[in-house]
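Re: the request from the purification team.
They wanted to know what the chain is likely to look like in 3D before they choose a buffer screen. I agreed to run a prediction and write the result into the notebook, where they can find it.
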Amino acid sequence: MLEPSNNSELPVIPGKRYFTIGEVSELCDVKSHVLRYWEQEFTQLAPVKRRGNRRYYQRQDVLMIRQIRSLLYEQGYTIGGARQQMDGPGAKDDANKSSQIIQQMIKELEDVLVELK
């Protein structure tokens, strides 16, 4: 899902609930106007809009932006190709794989916790 090559150099995502467009721009190393353009091109990317049309992104939005960034800038996809990758059946498989990996990690961490006690 998320390619580790250049995204590993991006800053760690803080444990906040909402991020402004400026914060997301810094976290993902993408200009604000590019983020607004990607909102038009990728229907999955829909930040919460509040007073004065201010955008507030959640953690999953930041992760999705990093994935889009990886597809476009590192893997060389066009906007249309990246959209297909995000929409296609492979995207659901990636989500399922990620869910399985997370569940496995949780189980392993619980086992470690039991060992430590």
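For the purification team: Strands lie at 19-20, 48-50, 54-57.
Please add any questions underneath this entry.
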